[in-house]
Amino acid sequence: MLRTRRAAVMLVGLSLALSACGSTDDAGSSDSTTNSSTDPVTITVFSIASEEAAVQRYKDVIADFETVNPTVRVEATFPGEQYEALLKTKMAANDLPDVFQTHGWTRDRYQPYLLGLSDAPWAKDIAPAMVANVTSDDGTVLALPISQRKAGINVNVKILSQYGIDVPTTWDEFLTAARTIRDKSGGSITPVHIGGADSWTIGAFYNWLAIPALISPTDNQASALLDGSFDWSKWDFVSKQLALLQSEQLINDDVLTAKYSDSAQLIAQSKVAFAFYGGGVISEVKRLNPDVDLQMMPIPSVEPGDAPTWSGGEGDTLAIWKDTKHAEAARAFVDFFAEPKNVKAIIGDAPDEPGLITATVDVGDVLTTDDPDIRVMPAFDRQYFPNGMWDVMCINGQELLSGSLTAAQVSAATKSEYERLRLAS
Amino acid sequence: MSTNGYAVNRTAPTVRRLGRRGWRINLLYLPALALLLTFIAYPFVRGVMYSLTDWNGFSPSYHWVGLGQYQRMLSDARVRTVLLNTLVYAVASTLLQNAIGLGYALLLDKGIRGSAVVRTIVYLPIIISNLIMGYIWYFIVRNNGGALNDVLIAFGRDPVNLLADRHLAVLVIVAANTFQYVGVAMVLYLSGLQSIPRSCLEAAEIDGASPRQRFWRVTLPLLMPSVTVSMTVNVIGGLNIFAVIIALTGGGPGYATSSLGTIMYQLYFGEQNAGYAAGLGVLMFLLAALLGLTTLGALRRREVDL
């Protein structure tokens, strides 16, 4: 009996000690928020940056921030490809990082979880093209736009000049250029390389070609895609072009087993003329071979009378979780990233525009043209598809290339998921 | 099984001897029970609940759809493909791992020179992460610069793209999984073989049994407890295969090499179809229970007591 009592006393004592620990912790975090000038604060930051150079740029700016703000410690996480899955899990648990990137989904996915930032010192300096992307319907600024993406087709201009080909401006010219390279190179150059084992590379093809096929012409499908009345037989065109590239051997024959990393290696070896990766691959290729003459060209037009376009929209962003316990430190962190020198540092050598008018960057000779009249169209899936369609495009594209689905079946499968996700959203 | 009978016979009188204080022994189960309820039972019940909804995986709201997700599975060609793949991964991996593992065990049981080294080498892949193992195999079989193709080219042969063919890709995944886990079967069989009394084999030999007869009539029946454990573990492991597929093929092209695990991941996180993914989770549970219990039941009947 005595032993039982002793055990009970020990149990109660242990419980009290544990609850006391909890109280101390709570009090500490509360103090740290209100009195950040003296007590150390740790904020968690999640970034979608995955390429080594981009991650390093973030780490450098974070280190500068910690130097300037010695009472704030930053726990930065770079989950790479798992970023979206991780953030979705955290949203389900309502336990998000203090600061995180919204990668094009500020409004449609993350909005309910974001702290309003309209009173931030940089809020009035958001580039006009980015205002709609990072602002709610009631005018609340939801995220800091560090950069505006400008993406196009990667092109090895040395290969083009070697075969006497001008940078194509229409899809027909693009196909002709690819055929010329295929025929004249004798197989030593792959006209278009797609690392389709990483299914996002196929999604990128759909996402880019859908713009000139469905959006950029004067007579376009934008409103039909938005109101749900889109005639899905028109989606066949994009699939048919991908199938055409495969059937005419204009893309690598191992398209379904090659990975993005294989693409980067072959591009760096000047064995590839075109790729659909945009600015991200350029720094990776330059790291492998600084001498390769890799640039980015606008997406060729499809319809007669239309002009080439860039795919664009939200690039790097930073937003704050609305329930963060360290709002003050998180705001200081985001404000620090909004400083022009840091905007420039994060953009690095990517061909992106700054998201704030206070910053300027020099994209150098990465683009085949600096024509300011070339339109920057919003990323197709983010603008015209409901949240969740990206993977549908990627997987259906793989099914097409593997021969499991025809172009019409891809359209039917895409329509089915479009309707499900539209209903859910 | 004899060991079970032994445990029951010894434990029951002990508990009875403790009398009224015996219930306190049951308190020792509580930590394990708490872990089981928290990490197995609760998620399972929630999973079943989500399978009756159209939850997207992160939104705080969702709609009840009843058995709609299950009805959809019946007409979903992807589910048929993935179910077949999962069964191939489970059954083929199990058979290969056990056959090769038993072969190794029989060889090592003879006490050949260097058996410790062989045992270590065969067991070594288990300590490597599944994902890393998948990538190692990817670098062996990939079309562009893969080790296998480099060897073929060096011998003047044409390179092969094993992952391009969906059927071959499934077999490559089976091979990678087998290579990694054959050591588990080997160790289980080796311990089983070493527990068989030499007198039984010597008696059979004196009675004139050939080596083949000794294996089939004496060794294998007495090894059945190990076979039961190994087969059951391998079947369940094969059903859960995930990381190797992600590294080798990503489940693609499309869903051609996906398992139930990878398609659940894809549907949940990629296509924001968590309700459907949860339904497939329930299907996977039923499949694992069915295959596991069938294997266990079938093999238990063949076990013999010493």
Nutshell version of this structure?
With 425 residues, chain A is α/β, with parallel strands linked by helices. Helices cover 47% and strands 12% of the residues of chain A.
Question: Top keywords for this entry?
Answer:
heterodimer, A: 425 residues, alpha/beta, D-Maltodextrin-Binding Protein, domain 2, 2 domains, four-stranded mixed beta sheet, B: 306 residues, mainly alpha, MetI-like fold, 14 helices, globular, disordered N terminus
Shape by Cα distribution of chain A: globular
* Average of the residue pLDDT scores of chain B: 87
For the record, give the distance between the C-alpha atoms at the N and C termini of chain B, rounded to a whole number: 10 Å
Count of discrete structural domains of chain B: 1
Plain-language structure description:
The complex is a heterodimer of chains A (425) and B (306). Chain A is of the alpha/beta class. Chain A has helices at 2-34, 52-68, 83-92, 106-110, 128-134, 157-162, 171-185, 200-215, 222-227, 236-247, 260-268, 280-288, 327-337, 340-347, 380-384, 390-401, 407-424, and strands at residues 41-46, 72-77, 99-100, 144-145, 147-151, 153-156, 190-193, 272-275, 294-297, 309-314, 317-320, 353-354, 375-378. The longest helix of chain A is centred in the N-terminal third of the chain and has 33 residues, at 2-34. Chain A is globular. Chain B has 306 residues and is mainly alpha-helical. Chain B has a single domain (77-300), classed as MetI-like fold (Orthogonal Bundle), CATH 1.10.3720.10. Chain B is built from 14 helices and no strands. In chain B, helix 10 runs antiparallel to helix 11 and helix 11 packs antiparallel against helix 14 (274-300). Chain B is globular, with a radius of gyration of 24 Å. Chain B starts with a helix and ends in a 6-residue tail after the last helix. The chains are: A alpha/beta (425), B mainly alpha (306). The A-B interface holds A 84-85, 88-89, 91-92, 94, 196-199, 253-254, 256-259, 262, 265-266, 387-388, 390-392, 394-396, 398-399, 401-402, 404-405, 417, 420-421, 424 and B 54, 56-60, 142-145, 161, 163-164, 166, 249-250, 252-256, 265-266, 269-273.
